[in-house]
Amino acid sequence: MKYQNNLTFAKQQDSEDSLSYLRNRFHIPRDKNGEEWLYFTGNSLGLQPKATKNYINQELEDWANLGVEGHFEAKNPWLHYHEYLTDKMAKIVGAKPQEVVMMNSLTVNLHLLMVSFYRPTTSKYKIVIESDAFPSDRYAVQSQLEFHGFSKEDVIEWKPRKGEELLQIEDLEEIVSKQGDEIALLLIGGVNYYTGQFLDLKRIAEIGHSKNCVVGIDLAHGAGNIQPNLHESGVDFAAWCSYKYLNAGPGSLSGIFVHEKHARNKDLPRFAGWWNHNKETRFNMRQPFDVMEGAEGWQLSNPPILSMAAILASLDLFEEVGMEKLRQKSEKLTGYFEFLVKEIDSEDIKIITPKNPKERGCQLSIQVKNADKSLHQKLMEQHVITDWREPDVIRCAPVPFYNSFEDVFIFTEILKEIL
Ligand SMILES: *Cc1c(COP(=O)(O)O)cnc(C)c1O
Fold first, then answer.
1. Which of 120, 116, 109, 110 lies closest to 151, judged by CA?
2. Where, by residue number, does pyridoxal 5'-phosphate bind (predicted)?
């Protein structure tokens, strides 16, 4: 693809983009004077689809009119509501429907999955994470170690090499081949939140399994962004949130994936509640616990319908467009963004995200020499919302649903000016 550094080219790309109509399906935040922000933080909180309100209103109305009967009589009976999400969600992450369910929040789910999949013994108990793992994931694994009577120090970090920013798969291979007998679990961010690096999940699964380590993936920055092909990758489990690229609203529910190979293993230890008990006899009460097969067998509680309505609104948009098309546009859009940032030709900035489009999603992380948060502030003053991460990185994510080539062009012009 030959890119050009001018507004006419950017506008031309937008006019040829078969997905450009989708921007109008979202609310773009505006300032007091009604001017649109340049929104580059879909990696942190995805924008609201205009349809979301109707989906939630439907459930509010059914609740008002039907009360408890809504569980059966609502237009979308609440009793089965989580099932309306499953097929659509499974397609987005490349899983079989039985492998996926939406429930709880992300960190809660990481813990629930570790209850089943982190089964340390006195000799095989360590956990591998990336050295710049998201803090919540680090705290979660540290607390699991301590909960089982081990120490925080029993976390093994997969680090970039000296002077580098990105992880190399060979280094994970070395960690596992040398220390694999002591390692119980690999819990890795499939797309790193800081660098935007999209790791080879299949390779990670193979490496972990070669030494009988369980492999779990955090896809918070991957779901709705890249195509992780979870089933095919062979990882044991995964979890993600729905408020980043999945546009389901602040704090919305998390999705989990449990590979089919574990679907019928009723001996896997797990916590129980009425929602992972056999659907057929759930309401007979007083029955001995009979766990459901598949990912649904990790649910505990009846789920929040209002939050799920927002998820359904968003998943219906994904269903309408399909991940293939979104990903195609995303590669082109982020490629253009990268081209323009390089054209700024300043010693002071460096993109730390991988150059290969197959090893990244839409996010570019730009490292800024000697910068402090004032750069971020100046961007805000110019109507650009990006996300500043200490010590020196701005993360910018042009999202194929609602960002345009023009957005990317104007943003880099502003950045050039500020620098
Ligand atoms: C966003 C994110 C979280 C947030 O966890 P919550 O439980 O939803 O607050 C955790 N881990 C990663 C990798 C994330 O990107």
1. 120
2. 106-107, 134-137, 218, 221, 243, 274, 302
